[in-house]
Design a protein that fits this description.
Strand content: 25-35%
Radius of gyration: 18 Å
Strand order of the largest sheet: 1-3-4-7-8-2
Order of helices and strands: HEHHEHEEEEEEH
Structural class: alpha/beta
Shape: globular
Number of helices: 5
Oligomer: single chain
Length: 178
Amino acid sequence: MKRFTLSQLAAVCVAVTLSSAAMAADTELVKPGVVVVDKRLAPTRQALMETVARRYATFWNTGEERLAREALAGNFIDKTPPAGRKQGPEGPLLASRAFRGAVPDLSCEVEQMIIVGDRVVAHLHFRGRFTGTFGQIKGVGQAVDFIATDIYQIENGKIAANWHIEDNLTLMKQLGAL
């Protein structure tokens, strides 16, 4: 009987997880413009972390809720939630639905991604046209173009926590709320 090391078994598990996820996902994941990786990370760990972060960014790009559910841990914690946002995976899903009601053609580009330790930092760029409704404000097709930065804590191949900051001043001015 052949014996395997723990790292060999872990590599096989990661490969199976990645190939299963790739087969399950019909959507091409967004590609970061730049990826900076801590060279001390094992290549399989780096690939898993990058894939889960790209899956979550693709959710923001497309609105496909399946991608968020695949990326977020069941006990996901938003460490910087806006007032009233639900915790768990449901929070980002509700936020996406609401914002897509205001900006149906919303797109999300990952300008850069930094992968180190158990963290992924993603610099995101959102664009679209405000043609829906945001609160009491009705869009007239004006451009929406703002940035955000997310820090994901990855545990067991899922995003367990997220710290994020959006350029809300720019966004609110573009929406006509300020």
